[in-house]
Amino acid sequence: xxxxxxxxxxxxxxxxxxxxxxxxxxxxxxxxxxxxxxxxxxxxxxxxxxxxxxxxxxxxxxxxxxxxxxxxxxxxxxxxxxxxxxxxxxxxxxxxxxxxxxxxxxxxxxxxxxxxxxxxxxxxxxxxxxxxxxxxxxxxxxxxxxxxxxxxxxxxxxxxxxxxxxxxxxxxxxxxxxxxxxxxxxxxxxxxxxxxxxxxxxxxxxxxxxxxxxxxxxxxxxxxxxxxxxxxxxxxxxxxxxxxxxxxxxxxxxxxxxxxxxxxxxxxxxxxxxxxxxxxxxxxxxxxxxxxxxxxxxxxxxxxxxxxxxxxxxxxx
Length: 317
What we know:
Layout: E1 4-5, H1 8-14, E2 21-24, E3 28-35, E4 38-45, E5 55-57, E6 63-65, H2 72-91, E7 100-104, E8 111-115, E9 119-120, H3 121-126, H4 135-153, E10 160-161, E11 170-172, E12 178-180, E13 187-188, H5 204-209, H6 214-230, H7 241-247, H8 252-258, H9 263-266, H10 271-288, H11 299-316
Parallel strand pairs: 1-7
Antiparallel strand pairs: 2-3, 3-4, 4-8, 5-6, 7-8, 9-11, 10-13, 11-12
Helix pairs in contact: 4-6, 4-11, 6-10, 10-11
């Protein structure tokens, strides 16, 4: 895949001298710009960041994360994340992956230019920009996201593990097409040593052993599915969806009470049929969240189950 190389002066023109900041994070800052009559997101690393930690999304969908401090080792870490991002983008091209348009190599840490995607799944489910999403739309988002990750896993010796699958890293276009983003933690499957991931979604097997595999992405996607059907965030605190959902999964009434009830009123299916579809999505989520790695599905297997569910739903209309 061709990636354009920009100068700092060209990026000043593209971003109109950084006049529209749409996100700020541990990595740096993101500005909206225009290149070849196309909206783009330009991601800069900054040399110093404020003390404290926060996790949210900017108004145009990019994550806000403030790190504790900046140091030479952090800059080296940022360089590694950028190298991973570029490496992954050179290996893959998929309709459900955010496209890297180009980079600038004139700075200490390269600046990255991406296609601009206005929303993210996290903000659509939980943020101030939360939207009404029917069951059909949520299923389409799950399938599109899974297709991207399954594609990454299917490339043999060049297979790539994302390493940080979560709603914040699934961007959503205006037509609700999901696009997987943020490949700074991604690694070639044969070369994985360390990942920088959100502890709310990370595979506990990786935490215990340091080993991360394609099945780790499947585990993380189990949380994404749970958030899609419950609209509750996967956080390790008193409001965590994961312990209750897994604990009460076999209790039909308790499980169904945890589903986002808004879907029952925005679905074209009758309530009973809608519940059956949600039960199937819940079963796939629980399958992905198995403690035993060998009992988890591959992303391709889970994807096939979701596609079968969608085909069944469409035949019911």
